[in-house]
Design a protein that fits this description.
By secondary structure, this protein is mainly alpha-helical. 56% of the residues lie in helices and 5% in strands. It has one domain. Helix 1 packs parallel to helix 3.
Length: 78
């Protein structure tokens, strides 16, 4: 699954989780973000600092997890 910066922000807000690979992607892409995306990423950082969003892993939806039998994370692209 691929996500934009905005989708990643919303997913992290709704789940309360962000993965290390997502943070790494954000850091490598930050120079390409629009002003609105930069503001959202700053807010995401503050929420991480406050403990409202946790560093963790995402579990695949149950229907997908049964087939593969594994855990996974969301892959983000530019």
């Amino acid at each position: 699954m691929t996500m934009t910066a905005g989708e990643l922000f919303l997913e992290s807000l709704s789940s309360g989780v962000i993965t290390q690979s997502e943070i790494d992607w954000l850091l490598t892409q930050q120079g390409r973000f629009s002003r609105a995306e930069q503001a959202a990423m700053l807010r995401l950082g503050r929420l991480l600092d406050q403990g409202q969003i946790q560093l963790g892993c995402r579990v695949l939806p149950q229907s997908l997890g049964r087939r593969s039998g594994s855990l996974g994370s969301v892959h983000v692209t530019a």
